[in-house]
Amino acid sequence: MAKLSFRHFLLPKGRASRLGFLPVLLGIYVLWQVPELVVTHLLARGVTVFAWQFETANLGLALLAWPLVCAAARRCHDINLPMWPALIYAWHVVTEVTLRISNHLGYDVLPHFGYSVANLSIAITSIALCVIPGGKDDNRYGAPPRGPQTPAADVF
Length: 156
Description:
Blueprint: H1 6-10, H2 18-44, H3 51-61, H4 65-78, H5 88-105, H6 109-131
Helix pairs in contact: 2-3, 2-4, 2-6, 4-5, 5-6
């Protein structure tokens, strides 16, 4: 089994298989969505939720974008691509901040469109990174991933 450390989540170096990327993607997606679902549920029940608390929590969760960018960069490296496609996950943070600021200023249309485009782009990128197989040989980013992501385990 591969040894994981904080550097694994904070540095975009090396390679990651599809099965190594998927738990990070799903875990961070759940962490992003749970506060949204909880607040929506509370609002539906008539509980008062202060806007600043919700927005502060949302912007705090934006810090999770960097580990996702790093995991996606390692996945791109496994496909023998540079890390630039992985930066699509940072776009979500930019659109989230823009959406929050525009809501305070009273603007409504354009940031929502940008937010929708960002979400669609993230979905397409995520599916591509989970479906495209990585290289079996060494490439300019290093050796193929090992441990729980062995070729026998990477059948999906």
